């Protein structure tokens, strides 16, 4: 095999984006599409000229695919992934991998049992700037981390929320900004800074007519006593992410200006413990971090998964690592709604009960579904 045959399940906004990218990936070929909406399927049939199926089971049993890319609304990611994995079909799930941590656990377990390649579409990980930041962390250049912060500002209009019946409902989406826009920033945040062990959150529906949160903030505690802060919103312009990690040996800042790193060779605590100078402070050396200028995106993750299947390349965004940001998002939702601190690992039973309660209160939303790919992709 020198090319991986991909089926796309869910050819809406993002699924169509993935389908249009396929011809750019030498190692992958689009061989089938699936959607439960006849209109979406008809449009995809005309656009891509590949066999089309109105259920994912028919696509999986067609013998036409080695791997699938699941781009349906989030609740469908786990059940479709199980059906694929049980047939030995490799999986890329769109983010978030699941709505609940219990669903995510089960996907990771199914991938382990069946031995298929399983990745989550966290395309931001492929960016050279994020890869460079990860190398700094992995090389121990920050030392133990004492403080983290992430301010991750997005903008979504009311028209966006009114564009599909599943969006921004407990029944259809299982959360708001934390489940839809935040996963990329929170993945980079936990990938670089680790997973906190306790979350104290505030969530609110501040500027939109929706039933889920459009803003969330939290104080974070880490196992080593470090603290952190996180803000996720869809209410801001200009948008952008600002991520800081402060450690014993250095400080890292990622924002729209790029990646900056300051080295503290002696160590912050080590200097404090040793100096006899009342106003002494450790030397800080700004370090230039070379970052490749290479455009990246969703196609990089698909290519990486194809190469993992064909040649055993290591995954950029393995499913097992996608749990961390979901665990944080779910912990923030539970903490915010129950007005109490929440520990991580999250109590799976408590979270399932919380989601069931929110779903039971969820109202049906009747709108005409629009499937429009984000032009920024
Ligand atoms: N990685 C990214 O940058 C990125 C960007 C946008 C969306 N997404 C993710 O992609 C997913 C889809 O989002 P979207 O904006 O494309 O939504 P969308 O509503 O535009 O498209 C979803 C499609 O899935 C179809 N569908 C629903 N249930 C199905 C099922 N059981 N089987 C087959 N098809 C089904 C719908 O008919 C629709 O055509 C979400 O999980 C979202 O978080 C990821």
Would you give an account of this structure?
A nine-stranded mixed beta sheet has the order 14-13-12-11-7-10-9-8-15. A six-stranded parallel beta sheet has the order 3-2-1-4-5-6, with helices on both faces. The longest helix is centred in the C-terminal third of the chain and has 20 residues. It has 377 residues and is α/β, with parallel strands linked by helices. 36% of the residues lie in helices and 23% in strands. Helix 4 runs parallel beside helix 5, helix 6 runs parallel beside helix 9 and helix 9 crosses helix 12. Bound molecules: nicotinamide-adenine-dinucleotide. Nicotinamide-adenine-dinucleotide (NAD) binds next to helix 1.
Number of structural domains: 2
Strand order of the largest sheet: 14-13-12-11-7-10-9-8-15
Distance between the termini: 30 Å
Structural class: alpha/beta
What are the SSEs and their pairings?
Elements: E1 4-9, H1 13-21, E2 28-34, H2 38-48, E3 52-53, H3 56-60, E4 67-70, H4 77-86, E5 90-93, H5 101-114, E6 118-120, H6 128-138, E7 145-155, H7 158-161, H8 177-180, H9 182-193, E8 198-204, E9 215-221, E10 227-233, E11 235-247, E12 250-255, E13 258-263, H10 268-274, E14 285-287, H11 298-311, H12 319-338, E15 342-343, H13 348-361
Parallel strand pairs: 1-2, 1-4, 2-3, 4-5, 5-6, 7-10
Antiparallel strand pairs: 7-11, 8-9, 8-15, 9-10, 11-12, 12-13, 13-14
Helix pairs in contact: 4-5, 5-12, 6-9, 9-12
The chain binds nicotinamide-adenine-dinucleotide (NAD).
Nicotinamide-adenine-dinucleotide (NAD) binds at residues 9-15, 34-37, 40, 56, 71-74, 76, 94-95, 121, 123, 164, 180, 371.
């Amino acid at each position: 095999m020198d090319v991986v045959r991909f089926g796309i399940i869910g050819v809406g906004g993002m699924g169509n984006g993935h389908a249009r990218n396929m011809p750019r990936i030498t190692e992958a070929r689009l061989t089938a599409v699936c959607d439960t909406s006849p209109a979406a399927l008809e449009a995809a049939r005309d656009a891509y000229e590949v066999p089309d199926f109105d259920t994912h089971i028919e696509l999986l049993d067609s013998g036409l695919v080695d791997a699938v890319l699941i781009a349906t609304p989030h609740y469908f990611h786990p059940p479709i992934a199980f059906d694929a994995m049980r047939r030995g079909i490799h999986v890329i799930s769109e983010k978030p991998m699941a709505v609940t941590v219990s669903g995510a656990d089960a996907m990771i377990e199914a991938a382990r049992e069946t031995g298929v390649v399983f990745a989550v579409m966290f395309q931001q990980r492929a960016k050279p700037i994020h890869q460079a930041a990860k190398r700094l962390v992995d090389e121990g250049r920050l030392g133990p981390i004492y403080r983290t912060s992430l301010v991750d500002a997005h903008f979504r209009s009311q028209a966006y929320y009114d564009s599909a019946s599943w969006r921004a409902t407990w029944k259809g989406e299982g959360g708001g900004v934390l489940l839809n826009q935040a996963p990329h920033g929170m993945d980079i945040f936990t990938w670089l800074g680790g997973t906190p062990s306790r979350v104290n959150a505030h969530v609110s529906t501040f500027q939109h007519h929706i039933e889920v949160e459009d803003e969330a903030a939290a104080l974070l505690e880490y196992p080593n006593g470090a603290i952190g802060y996180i803000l996720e919103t869809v209410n801001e312009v200009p948008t952008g992410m600002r991520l800081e990690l402060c450690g014993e040996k250095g400080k890292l800042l990622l924002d729209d200006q790029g990646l900056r790193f300051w080295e503290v060779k002696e160590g912050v605590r080590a200097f404090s413990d040793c100096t006899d100078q009342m106003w002494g402070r450790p030397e800080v050396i700004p370090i230039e971090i070379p970052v490749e200028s290479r455009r990246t995106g969703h196609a990089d993750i698909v290519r990486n998964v194809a190469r993992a299947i064909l040649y055993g390349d290591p995954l950029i965004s393995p499913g097992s690592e996608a749990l961390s940001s979901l665990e944080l998002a779910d912990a923030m939702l539970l903490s915010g709604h129950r007005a109490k601190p929440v520990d991580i690992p999250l109590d799976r039973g408590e979270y399932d009960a919380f989601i069931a309660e929110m779903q039971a209160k969820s109202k049906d939303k009747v709108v005409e579904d629009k499937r429009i790919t984000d032009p920024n992709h």
